[in-house]
UniProtKB/TrEMBL annotation:
Record's protein name: p-loop containing nucleoside triphosphate hydrolase protein
Any single GO CC term annotated in Swiss-Prot or TrEMBL for this entry: membrane
Topology term for the membrane: Multi-pass membrane protein
Localization per record: Membrane
Superkingdom of origin: Eukaryota
Pfam families registered for this protein in UniProt: ABC2_membrane, ABC2_membrane_7, ABC_tran
UniProt keyword annotation of Transport present: yes
Organism of provenance: Linderina pennispora
PROSITE patterns: ABC_TRANSPORTER_1, ABC_TRANSPORTER_2
Length: 686
């Protein structure tokens, strides 16, 4: 088989004196007048994987085939909405053991095509056909058979490499099929294969905390996908941001894994060097949403040359292909010229592909390999296949039952363990919670220290409960909104690959966050209670503490509900602040609860802070004896009179407790449902 350099050099020899890619192509072709050269190399698989047909049971057919994929989105241009087509009738297929490199200029539609192939496209209109093992994809099955490695590495920065891959194994590998030991062994083998053994105990890290390198992080992302033993790997720009050595290593590893495991991989890479190019069995070139070429890299050079675009000597073929396929914005003439060039290439390839290599998916997408054609120059380029009528045979063996889900309790246990680890290791969060508790304890404890039983203590008592109510709501919202958003991207990505149920995710968040919120709040609540010298009876302390605690649970539910509805942290924190401000305004402290305008008075009844505050104030004042001083014009000797004066007797303490408890349940159910609804992947399937 000829190497890429040889191909490049032979092609350039034959065209010495022609313009280089970067110098423009205007004189090298005649639009639509050049006869099509009889290249039938596209749709060919490289020699090595001709024999590869293991592991995924395709019986010789492609693992994934796609036909005439067209994708459009609604866009606004010049104040008018119209449909913009991003993919124009793209067809192709990928076989087990094969690595397909998806190349094209920026904005060509590479990520869009990858998303369509991986079943991860949302919004817009998708037409065409995608078959997995010759059959229509079953979302639940397909999602778990494809590992999608996104461009951004979405992982918990505080977990180690080994923990990250181990959690993926624990969450996605069924307990019935894999024992704990087998999972550990699998993780170890993935770590070894990805050459991550030396950093397995290092944290992933982020901008603030140094962790593993960019290349290692990318390999961990691949490991997370690999550990579930997928049939196909889809990678979007796995080399972006990496130096050339790390980038080469990633691409080579993907090739090795693809071959050793007999899976199929498709990846986009910006500017692959010739070593990386050699790792691709076939190139899929797209420009402006059109398929420009699909076949081996070697044949690509020949093909482009046959169309009047010879690859100059010593130019990296990948750079050359991208140059030829790019729009040139330097001048209107050059732009027009490049548009015509791309249209020519797209049309040429479409016409060349049509009569001979078109996939007929109605036959199940099967290709029967033909012996090399007489035109085949013996370069190792295979001839294209033809359709076989008995193709459905291999598709029949496909396993369409979704991989078994892991046990609900085991899933919950795993998520709780992961949430505990990430929360405890999240130092800024832990310190924020700790500092908040101690500072509130000291500030309020000293401010209201020994408030006594004078009539003047009425204001202090009321102010104390107001401060406690405010802190429990503002504090909880700001802390937990932040930690929730930190894990939201990971959750969305994991939900996209069907990792776990929303019920376990939600319960795990409550199980881990609530005790931290509750215990840290109890520290200052109880401390302040006794520093201030409020009524000491156990029943009173317990009642106020319970009302305060249930208010925390309501706040947590509302925080998660806002977080699920609103996609950005900035907006969600503004909305949370508005909600808490409303609660506080209508909480019964700032304005007398019985004196509000009818038009807004209803708002106090939807404020959980109102019930918690009213309940706590009533608990404290009921039975309280106040000392009336001589010559004091106004004297309320009984705490009950104070409650009446402030109109905080609209509900009994018991009613307040029941209403706040009901709100806690209702808000959490609503938060769970909205999270479930919003985080449900709404992917388009064809
Ligand atoms: N949902 C969408 N709404 C509007 N335009 C979109 C949408 N998705 C993609 N596009 C547009 O479609 C084109 C192709 O996008 P895509 O992200 O697939 O390009 P790409 O080849 O991956 O580019 P890059 O190399 O820069 O990552 C771009 O012009 C992009 O702006
Ligand atoms: Mg992209």
């Amino acid at each position: 088989m000829l190497g890429l350099q040889n191909m490049a050099s032979s092609s350039s020899d034959s065209s010495s004196g022609s313009s280089s890619a970067s110098q423009g192509f205007s004189s090298t072709y005649e639009f639509m007048e050049q006869p099509l050269s009889p290249i039938d190399s596209f749709n060919q698989r490289s020699e090595h994987n001709k024999t590869l047909d293991k592991g995924v049971g395709t019986g010789g057919g492609p693992l994934l085939s796609w036909e005439n994929l067209t994708y459009s989105v609604k866009v606004r241009e010049k104040k008018k909405m119209h449909m913009r087509t991003i993919l124009h009738g793209i067809s192709g297929e990928i076989y087990p053991g094969e690595v397909v490199g998806l190349l094209g200029p920026s904005g060509a539609g590479k990520t869009t095509l990858l998303n369509v192939l991986a079943g991860r496209i949302e919004g817009g209109v998708l037409n065409g056909k995608v078959l997995f093992r010759g059959k229509k994809r079953v979302p639940g099955v397909f999602r778990r058979k494809v590992a999608y490695v996104e461009q951004e590495d979405v992982m918990f920065p505080m977990l180690t490499v080994e923990e990250t891959i181990m959690f993926a194994a624990r969450l996605r590998l069924s307990n019935k099929q894999y024992s704990q030991l087998q999972k550990v062994e699998r993780v170890a083998s993935v770590i070894q294969q990805l050459r991550l053994s030396h950093v397995k105990s290092s944290p992933i890290g982020d901008n603030l905390n140094r962790g593993v390198s960019g290349g290692e992080k990318k390999r961990v992302s691949i490991g997370v996908g690999m550990v579930t033993d997928p049939d196909m790997l889809v990678l979007d720009e796995p080399t972006s941001g990496l130096d050339s050595n790390s980038a080469e290593m990633v691409v080579e590893l993907v090739r090795d894994i693809t071959r050793s495991r007999g899976i199929a991989s498709v990846m986009t890479v910006h500017q692959p060097n010739s070593n990386m190019l050699r790792c691709f069995d076939r190139l899929l070139l797209v420009s402006q949403g059109h398929l420009v070429y699909f076949g081996s890299a070697e044949a690509a050079i020949q093909y482009f040359e046959s169309k009047g675009f010879p690859c100059p000597l010593r130019q990296n073929p990948a750079d050359f292909f991208i140059d030829v396929m790019s729009l040139n914005n330097r001048s209107p003439e050059e732009l027009e010229e490049s548009r015509r060039r791309i249209a020519f290439l797209a049309q040429s390839f479409g016409e060349a592909m049509h009569p001979t290599a078109k996939l007929s998916l109605s036959y199940g997408g099967m290709y029967e390999k033909m012996p090399a054609s007489p035109q085949d120059p013996g370069t190792g380029i295979l001839t294209h296949g033809t359709l076989s009528g008995s193709a459905l045979e291999w598709g029949m063996t496909a396993d369409e039952t979704p991989p078994e889900r892991i046990n609900w309790f085991y899933e919950l246990q795993t998520l709780i363990y992961r949430d505990i680890l990430t929360t405890v290791r999240h130092l800024s969060f832990a310190s924020a919670v700790g500092i908040n508790s101690i500072s509130v304890l000291l500030l309020l404890g000293l401010l209201f220290y020994k408030i006594g039983n004078e009539v003047t203590s009425i204001q202090n008592r009321i102010g104390l409960f107001f401060s406690l109510t405010m802190n429990s709501t503002y504090g909880i919202m700001s802390h937990y909104l932040y930690v929730y958003f930190k894990s939201k991207d990971i959750m969305l990505s994991e939900r996209g690959s069907g990792s776990y149920r929303m019920s376990t995710f939600y319960i795990s968040k409550l199980v881990v966050y609530l005790p931290i919120a509750v215990l840290s709040s109890w520290v200052y609540f109880i401390g302040i209670y006794f520093m201030a010298g409020l009524q000491p009876g156990a029943a009173k302390v317990f009642t106020s503490l319970m009302l305060f605690t249930v208010l925390l649970v309501v706040t947590m539910g509302v925080t998660l509900m806002v977080g699920s509805f609103i996609s950005t942290y900035d907006l969600a924190s503004v909305v949370c602040a508005m909600i808490v401000t409303t609660w506080v305004i209508f909480g019964g402290h700032l304005a007398n609860a019985g004196e509000l305008l009818a038009v807004i008075s209803w708002m106090q009844y939807i404020s959980p802070a109102f019930y918690a505050y009213e309940g706590m104030v009533a608990t404290e004042f009921n039975g309280l004896k106040l000392h009336c001083q001589a010559n004091n014009g106004l004297c309320m000797a009984r705490g009950e009179d104070v409650v009446k004066l402030y109109k905080l007797d609209q509900f009994t303490v018991g009613q307040c407790a029941v209403i706040v408890f009901g709100m806690a349940v209702a808000y959490n159910v609503l938060a769970y449902m909205s999270l479930r609804w919003k985080a449900k992947p709404k992917y388009l399937w064809v």
